[in-house]
Amino acid sequence: MNRAVAGILTSVILAIGAIGAAAPAWADGVPYTDPAKTGYFGFCDAHGRNVTSGSLDTVPFVASAVSSVAAPPPYDGKGRVAFVDVYQPRQGVTPPEWSGEELISAATYSNPAHPMTVTTKGDISLRQFVQDYPPAWHGFIQLRMYLKTPDLPFDSLHYATADLQVDQNSWHVVGGGSVPCGAGQAQSIASVLAPAAAKGRLNPALHTPVAHPSSPTHASAGGSRSVRSSGSTGSAPAGASRSQAQAAAQAASSRSGTSSFPTGYAVLGGVIAVLAAALLYTRRRELISLLGRRSKAGDGD
């Protein structure tokens, strides 16, 4: 091999190496990294089988979501709940600033080694989300499973994720792995406190025809994170009493930045108001009586 040929081959090899070095390093097949990610979660169908793809229009899009990562203390304690939000990754924007919505409402779960949620027909479809926030980064959307307990706010700094890539009418999981669909049980609070919503009777997506775009849309949708609120945001275990379900709902309410005002305080305030009105009425009667006696005494003089 003469020097000219060797020089050409060397240049080609160096160029290929430079191209490889310039190519983005996609962790788990996605073009972004999220420092808060602790692991992955996957999806199951109604028969307990892993699901890795589906239609954007299906409601609910899966039967359940199961984490491969155990709930850390103290989020593994009594009254623990999990819920799933979906986000729009955008280049040049950090993960905490990505826009998103609630996808699967909160549920209590039996096995802290595998936090899980169950879906209802009251949840939104993935089609609804991508219409609200079109995928802006190679068609990817990120799902996060948040954990919470009654005494703590949801943990926004540590969560398992599921990364989906969507096209015109379907989605598929990128990265991640299989999950044990039968590792435990979960119950959505919507099925306890809002059964009509859980059955989809209040979900317009089940009754409104979906306009399919002619081609995939990857335009960026700006704006701050918007968490969809669909009534109850907590959950109770199967067979739980209504009071237990309400306690779970109150435990999960702080995720949207609001808290439930205890009913006892409202009742106490009402009692105090009634007593105050009665006291004012009594003192008014006494004052009128006193003025009347003084008036009569003045007439006698």
Fraction of residues in β-strands: 15-25%
- What series of H and E elements makes up the topology? HEEEEEEEHEEEEHHHH
Helix content, binned percent: 25-40%
Major sheet description: 11 strands, mixed
The rough form would be described as globular
What is the residue-averaged pLDDT? 73
Structural class: alpha+beta
Q: For the record, give the distance between the C-alpha atoms at the N and C termini, rounded to a whole number.
A: 140 Å
Number of E-type strands: 11
Pick out the low-confidence regions. 5-26, 210-247, 251-272, 274-282
Task: Give the number of helices.
Answer: 6
Number of domains: 2
Rounded to the nearest angstrom, the radius of gyration is 29 Å
Description:
The chain has 301 residues and is α+β, with helices and mostly antiparallel strands. It has two domains: 25-260, no CATH class; 263-301. It is built from six helices and eleven strands. It has helices at 3-22, 126-132, 190-193, 195-198, 242-252, 263-300, and strands spanning 37-44, 50-51, 53-55, 64-67, 81-88, 99-109, 116-118, 140-148, 159-166, 170-174, 186-188. Strands 1, 2, 3, 4, 5, 6, 7, 8, 9, 10 and 11 form an eleven-stranded mixed beta sheet that branches. A hairpin with a 3-residue loop joins strand 9 (159-166) and strand 10 (170-174). The longest helix has 38 residues, at 263-300. It is globular. 34% of the residues are buried.
